[in-house]
Amino acid sequence: MPFSAVLILASVTDKLTEWVTTVVGDLGLAGIFLLMTLESMCIPIPSEPTMLFAGFNVSEGKYSLFAVVSVAVAANLVGSWIAYGVGRFGRIELIEQHGKWLHIKPSHIEWADRWFARYGDAAVFFSRMLPIIRTFISLPAGVARMPFWRFTLFTLLGCIPWMLGLTLAGKAAADNWDNIRDKLHYIDYAVLVLIVVGIVWLVVRWVRGRRGPAADAPAG
């Protein structure tokens, strides 16, 4: 994995962080709602700069802590519902149209159904407090048809401490916001490395899957 590629991608996320703070600064609570909804729809907009900057605005007296956390949690719910719905109602298309190249079989979906039936509550709850994973957990929960009310409950319970913690951290570090913002790209580097590694792993798996049938085919 070329390190230069990571640096190029990281420069993009530096701009993304600047854009996030601009949106929150210009649109206020509506900007927080927009960004956190998109983040929960499996669009990789980092919640950290959004909520840390929101906490900074709380320290400045622009918004109340309750308003910021409430808006962020509501946005997370809305975005998560959308991603959940895409997974739940698109699972047939996922198998029939994309299952082959994604190496997804009906048996895999059945396994996911059983897994979410057993561990789904804890998976949804704890994933809401984990970077990257929190963005994408709703889609597989929908594919596995996790009961909607349970999905909503544990999404709500998991989002509250994450949003509250980030907002309080931003509020507490208000005097050092400029320094914190400048160092957020280190988080981006780590996230991007994980994303690139994940993409490489998927490509390698896809290539091996393509070679397997060819190797097994009879000669001549």
TrEMBL record:
Keyword Nucleus annotated: no
What's in the keyword line of the UniProt record? Answer: Cell membrane, Membrane, Transmembrane, Transmembrane helix
Q: Which residues cross the membrane?
A: 20-42, 63-84, 151-174, 186-204
**Compartments, record wording:** Cell membrane
Membrane topology (UniProt): Multi-pass membrane protein
- Name recorded for this polypeptide: Unannotated protein
Q: Could you name the Gene Ontology cellular component terms for this entry?
A: plasma membrane
Primary localization class, coarse = membrane
Question: Any keyword Signal?
Answer: no
Ranges for domain VTT: 45-171
| Species annotation | freshwater metagenome
